[in-house]
User: Which sequence fits this backbone?
């Protein structure tokens, strides 16, 4: 059977994780101790964590209705903002970068801006000190979208402790998973308590919880290269054959794609049991990534996103930017269907998704980044021999 490498370094759920002890530490308490963060609230998804964050901040500044987000990010971020009646405002990113275009951010921020959402992509830490200056001037909140970056550190402390509120995702592929889930916290203890109180009001939707429980059991059984071929690889290749990149990467969302409910107790216990393996999981991922980044840097016309000074990343995957769109297309044509864990993170800038095409914004850098970027899995199953196959394809395309 053909091997299929997952696109990210998801933590496996072992069989014994499915039978957690009633005496074990609960997930919220364990993550608080592991990451040295205030006791977080748990939600059914990172998207719902963002919704609770925005609703909590809106109660403090009810006259403000706009939320600024990167123009290249998960479409669920914009949809979450619209779902609760707020207005997403798109800010472009810098050329060939993941950072906000600061001049445009200054122009967009005003007295109606409730929050600026800064995003820590791909297990990396974003230095948003310049964003803080703008936010302070307008008394605007900062939300740290660390959905992909649980375990990342800046100046030896967890990501998420600089902004007003932060959240992690427990979705498939993010690292630790509960078959969707969110971890929400604030360094401000008063806000943190309000987040907790809001999380208690989430309804229990039994059908959704049953669905997620079955998905978590299936993940435990099937999340391995031998079975991912038909679970992940075949649907991916079928979508690409139909020239449907949005479906291929699972970005075909709309407002109905955001169920709002509690994170069930059993799923959180399973995740808590698995989370004891996180420190080693992150350490090994970082070692693999640093070694491979050094080799990828030998290639022309390719930029690999790496840790900034005084930060430590978890690298669930590597983000690569190709300086030429034609070369990027050639790379994807050869590797996207190869089963080697090559894919795109977000295939469009926000306003180019069908469900969000009503948002008008001038964001050429984000559009270019979507067209000229791809990701390389940092899964433990991507062995050195597999990586060398990828490298040789990149070398052939980028040096000829």
Assistant:
């Amino acid at each position: 059977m053909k091997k299929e490498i997952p696109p990210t370094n998801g933590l496996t759920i072992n069989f014994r994780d499915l039978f957690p002890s009633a005496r074990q530490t609960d997930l919220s308490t364990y993550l608080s101790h592991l990451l040295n963060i205030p006791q977080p609230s748990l939600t059914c998804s990172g998207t719902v964590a963002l919704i609770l964050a925005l609703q909590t901040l809106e109660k403090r500044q009810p006259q403000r209705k706009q939320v600024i987000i990167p123009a290249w990010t998960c479409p669920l971020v914009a949809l979450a903002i619209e779902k609760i009646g707020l207005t997403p405002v798109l800010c472009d990113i810098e050329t060939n970068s993941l950072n906000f275009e600061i001049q445009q951010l200054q122009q967009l921020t005003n007295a109606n801006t409730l929050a600026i959402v800064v995003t820590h992509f791909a297990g990396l830490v974003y230095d948003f000190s310049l964003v803080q200056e703008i936010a302070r001037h307008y008394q605007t909140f900062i939300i740290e979208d660390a959905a992909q970056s649980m375990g990342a550190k800046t100046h030896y402390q967890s990501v998420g402790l600089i902004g007003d509120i932060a959240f992690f995702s427990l979705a498939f592929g993010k690292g630790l998973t509960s078959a969707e889930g969110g971890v929400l916290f604030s360094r401000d203890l008063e806000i943190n308590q309000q987040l907790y109180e809001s999380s208690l009001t989430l309804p229990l939707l039994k059908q959704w919880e049953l669905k997620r429980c079955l998905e978590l059991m299936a993940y435990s059984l099937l999340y391995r290269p031998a079975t991912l071929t038909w679970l992940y690889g075949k649907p991916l290749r079928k979508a690409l054959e139909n020239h449907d990149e949005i479906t291929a990467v699972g970005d075909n969302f709309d407002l109905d794609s955001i169920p709002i409910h509690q994170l069930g107790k059993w799923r959180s216990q399973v995740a808590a049991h698995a989370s004891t393996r996180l420190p080693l999981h992150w350490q090994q991922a970082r070692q693999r990534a640093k070694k491979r980044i050094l080799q990828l840097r030998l290639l022309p016309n390719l930029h690999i996103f790496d840790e900034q000074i005084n930060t430590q990343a978890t690298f669930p995957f590597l983000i690569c930017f190709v300086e030429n769109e034609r070369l990027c297309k050639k790379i994807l044509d050869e590797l996207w269907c190869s089963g080697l864990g090559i894919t795109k993170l977000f295939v469009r800038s926000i306003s180019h998704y069908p469900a969000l095409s009503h948002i008008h914004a001038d964001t050429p850098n984000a559009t270019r980044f979507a067209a000229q970027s791809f990701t390389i899995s940092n899964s433990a199953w991507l062995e050195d021999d597999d990586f060398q196959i990828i490298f040789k394809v990149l070398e052939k395309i980028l040096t000829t």
Q: What stands out?
A: The chain has a mean pLDDT of 97. The domain at 277-398 is CATH 3.90.1150.10 (Aspartate Aminotransferase, domain 1). Residues 240 and 315 are 26 Å apart (CA to CA). The first strand starts at residue 41 and ends at 43.
